[in-house]
Design brief:
With about 80 residues, the chain is an alpha+beta fold. The protein has one domain (about 1-79). Helix content is about 35%, strand content about 35%. The protein has helices spanning about 45-55, 60-79; strands spanning about 1-10, 10-20, 25-30, 35-40. It has a four-stranded antiparallel β-sheet, with helices on one face. A hairpin with a 4-residue loop joins strand 3 (about 25-30) and strand 4. Helix 1 crosses helix 2 (about 60-79). The N and C termini lie close together (about 10 Å).
């Protein structure tokens, strides 16, 4: 599991990323905003960004949701 730190609204939040290589999926969670999601290796690209943005918009502003979705996408592709 990887832990990334990110800033939103002048608060530092931990973002947890778990990768299951055998079953080819990720679990991403941000406990500070009570948010989590899962997705498979096949979900990368625009499909993943749309899913992340839509899910994050429930907890964050549109701007923050878009920025964080792009960060999550980048961090999981690096793994």
């Amino acid at each position: 599991m990887k832990i990334r730190k990110t800033m939103f609204n002048d608060k530092e939040m931990n973002l947890f990323i778990y990768e299951n290589k055998k079953d080819e999926y990720f679990v991403v969670a941000i406990p500070a905003i009570e948010w989590s999601t899962t997705y498979t290796y096949d979900d990368f690209g625009e499909k993943l960004l749309e899913k992340l943005i839509d899910s994050l918009k429930v907890k964050l502003t549109d701007e923050d949701a878009i920025a964080l979705a792009h960060r999550i996408n980048q961090w999981t592709r690096e793994m």
